[in-house]
Amino acid sequence: MSDGLNLAVDEVDFAVAAERLARTGRTRVPLLLGEGAGRLHDEMADPIHDWARAFHNPFGVDVSASGFDAQSDEDRQAALDRIHAGAAKGLQFLFDRLLIHTTGDEASHTPPLLKAAVELFNSEAYLAFARRLTGDDRIVSADGQATRYLPGHFLNRHTDANEASGRLYAYVLNLSPRWRAEWGGHLQFLDEAGEVTESMIPAFGALNVFKVPQSHAVSVVAPFAPAPRYSIIGWWRSQALT
What we know:
Largest sheet: 13 strands, antiparallel
CATH topology of the domain at 11-47 and 111-237: Jelly Rolls
CATH class of the domain at 11-47 and 111-237: Mainly Beta
Strand content: 25-35%
């Protein structure tokens, strides 16, 4: 347990999820944190946070989301046009994030409940859950970042391949209550021909897990979605966090 957050996994759901992961390379565990999911959502929805806006750019850096939105209409549209032009050709993404640090000077700037979540994800109980779910004893750590997808945000297809970082499995903890399928923001898996073979809506409180590398994307959040798509994402790794 960490700051009142704890695992709440039904054994039947766990068995089904583990079998599905072994068979397909991806799965979903319902209601991983129980009531803790609501607390994490409320923390992320607090307007006090200074979100960073992430998109693929030559400098490899995020910008302030509030600063991006404060541009003139003309400058903001020009930036979006560049992002959309890149998205039409290949890898591009547009979403907001908060990096979650549990150690070092940056940890003091991390919202306490988000920090507690990643501390839980690195507890022996949670890592044992991850190893048992995957059947992979190489898992020794889990990093994390909070993400916010607003209307128009998306993540183009990619595989998460990064052997140097020790990524074994990717996870997405969905934190958007009452999300509807027509609002977009689906986690989609693609085959070699680019066909969508499976699409997961961000079901509240559910943990999506998939083996890396695997081609996937997040579909565009619809302009009429009435709330952001919130999640905590990261990777289960074979290397300790630094």
